[in-house]
């Protein structure tokens, strides 16, 4: 009796344990299937031709119309959401640059920053669109951050600009804050200085909702900064026509 009773009690104990064990097994299997589905490689869609019309893209939920030929990396040449976009435009035409490579007898950095290149339309304006995230908007950076690190005496620049060097030992050492002396918020840029044969470059930023547009250009363009700023406005309206409509 006792010998037969022990197996019977064991079977009675095993029954209630089967349900949670089965449920746990299903959970593990389901998690494995989900992970495999997420990590399974997918084939990219057909690439957008370089000569295609502007494609609708979004960065940080903001809609932009971007000509595929201006997108610098092939992986970004698709419609839909992007983490960021890296673009290049001919200046001052604001059209896509040619697809052929540049002449080998002139270094790229010289061609992109030479004043003669801007005159003959072969200069480049580089644009990055990325989420603003937790970074302060440019106007707030100008008032609350940059002012902590600049010197006390500004030099006069072209056509009403002022140039304030950032102090040594600050995060922006070796750069200058260039701004319209009368109304800094109207135009300002952070610029590197020319070092031997390496020309200086500037960046200025615009914000549309949650997206920040960073424009990088040769410092020598500041000699004609009013037309440069107007060109930036045209480019923003070209990339984000809704902003131009909203102002009217």
Structure characterization notes:
By secondary structure, the chain is an alpha+beta fold. The protein has one domain (55-246). The chain contains six helices and eleven strands. It has helices at 2-39, 108-113, 115-119, 138-149, 225-239, 241-246; strands spanning 55-59, 62-66, 80-82, 85-91, 123-131, 155-156, 161-165, 175-180, 188-192, 201-208, 211-218. The strands form two sheets. The protein has an eight-stranded antiparallel β-sheet. Strand 8 (175-180) and strand 9 (188-192) form a beta hairpin. The longest helix is centred in the N-terminal third of the chain and has 38 residues, at 2-39. It is globular, with a radius of gyration of 29 Å. It starts with a helix and ends with a helix.
Features:
248 residues, 3-stranded mixed β-sheet
Averaged pLDDT: 82
Instruction: Domain count, please report it.
Output: 1
- Tell me the span between the first and last alpha carbons: 95 Å
Structural class: alpha+beta
Largest sheet: 8 strands, antiparallel
Per DSSP E runs of 2 or more residues, the count of β-strands stands at 11
User: What's the gyration radius in Å?
Assistant: 29 Å
Shape: globular
